Amino acid sequence: MTINNTYKLVVNASTRRLAEVRQFVADKAMHFGFDENQISDIRLAVDEACTNIIKHAYKYDESQNVEIRLKLEKNKLCVSLTDTGNAFDPNKYSKPDIREQMKSKKRGGVGVYLIRKLMDDVEYLKMDDHNMIRMYKNLN
Amino acid sequence: MLTVMKNFHINHRHSDEIEVLEISGELDAHTASKLEDSLKTLIDKNRHNIIVNCSDLEYIASAGLGVFMAYIEDVRGLGGDIKLTNMNERVYNVFDLLGFPTLYDIFDEEEEAVKQFQNSDQ
After folding, report:
1. Which residue in chain A has the smallest CA separation from B8?
2. At A50, is the pLDDT very low, low, confident or very high (cuts 50, 70, 90)?
């Protein structure tokens, strides 16, 4: 769906839908004029954000929905993902220590770090009835 | 336009001492369990010299990296290793962002990983 250079996709909260989300995001980012490397960054960041929502906000409840919006604002892309599950508190997040995680056989927590590395700006918003992660990528 | 979804596949080869998992397609939170099952099966069979050949791996998300993080200590504790080879640049970049190259053996070619295992066995 498109309204004024905005594209929207709603998927249910299942990891089965991740491939479709990635394809959607990559197609739109290409349409907006991003290069291959930038498209890879955006696609991975959205995958990580969507995975975190499925896993943490909804705890794999597949009856819930995730809404993904892409919009080109001046010279940057704004991607937002909206959910109505448990809010993520970015203050509780710390940079993962991979060496330490290997030792303790932990595997989570790196998605948030990757998102910050891949995108130019990231913000987490908590509204009354929904949560939103907004990520920006500059179009060079 | 949505195109055909790429799946994730594992082809398993083995020689006397070395197990090779050729992984292809897209490794994400949905497909990571396939890789996890394969690694578990090898570890349960006491096969600890494992090469993961990524030549046809087109995409990896952190859930895929998490599988390597979860099993490497077990495998090394048993005297083996998980060595990664033949990654394309984009896949390597994801490993690199998380600092994997200093923690894992990553080679351009599978033969280099094989040699490394053979040398460490002598």
Report:
1. A19
2. very high
